[in-house]
Write a structure and sequence with these properties.
Largest sheet: 2 strands, antiparallel
Structural class: mainly alpha
Strand content: under 5%
Number of strands: 2
Bound molecules: farnesyl diphosphate, magnesium ion
Amino acid sequence: MNASEALDLPLLEEGLLCVEPLLNANVVTGDSFLDSVTTHLIAAGGKRLRPLLALAAATGGEREATHDDLMGAVAVELVHLASLYHDDVLDEATIRRNVESVNSRFGNLVAIVAGDYLLARSAAIAASLGTEVAALLAETLAKLCQGQVAEVRSAFQITRSREDYIRAITGKTAALTSTSCRIGALTGGRPTAEVDALTEYGHCFGMVFQIRDDILDITATAGELLKPAGQDLAEGIYNLPTLVALADPDSGPDLRALLGQPLGQPEREKACAIVAASSGIGVAVNEARTYVERARDATSGVSNHALQEGLTQLATELLSDLPG
Ligand code: FPP
Ligand code: MG
């Protein structure tokens, strides 16, 4: 998915190009070793979805981004990057964005402290944007941590509830996409009703984004994922498709016999095949569709018609590579 193309708003691409050097400039310390760590994932690229959401919410493509708009976009991307530094330590990941992950390249200790450093830089930028943005970013960080802890606590629990799943992804993913839109709407000086509408849109967008990611973990090929399919199953993270498959009398018994413990390669493939063939995929795709509808509804609170259309198209685009 090319997110900028889906949004199809003037001046956004230019705004994103301005974000790139600002990301680097805001994390360099002058210490060449630390700089190689703090810029590692920035250099690896990425979709820059959160900056795009912030800039779209701020400008709607109607004007050039201001310095505050750009710094809001930088702040949310730095939180995202920091969360990946920490997530890769938790997951013992070796690859991220097609390059060696920070933990694998520099070790866990450096990855954690460098992640903290990115958070500190983000907090300083947020403070420069005012107390409302600073408080918002701090609350969002807390939600990310709560979501991540909910996920870690649920590991290998075949009795995990769908509510627990929704709670975890609301925190770990939707909180930051929601805040990205809200910060953009605030730096863009939008009226309160539009700020709230864009915040709701960002929440729904994040929910679709994560549910899609969790479906693709089961249905996509290793080539498409750049990692083996069924990674979440192997790590004991039972997402929506798996929870539905566990509850289905057709697939549940065989799946329960496999899950609840770490999986070897043959068991992982078997579990993945069971979930892929189960009702769980269709239910999860429908859940994603429901959030796209909610995202579309939220955009009706935005006055700029092109922004409404672009945001709806961006959320809809997330469904395009899902089965069914
Ligand atoms: C990637 O998701 C990870 C997240 C969306 C959030 C991780 C959050 C924390 C580690 C909490 C601490 C946060 C901060 C800001 C320090 P994923 O594991 O589903 O996807 P992946 O396959 O890309 O790893
Ligand atoms: Mg992960």
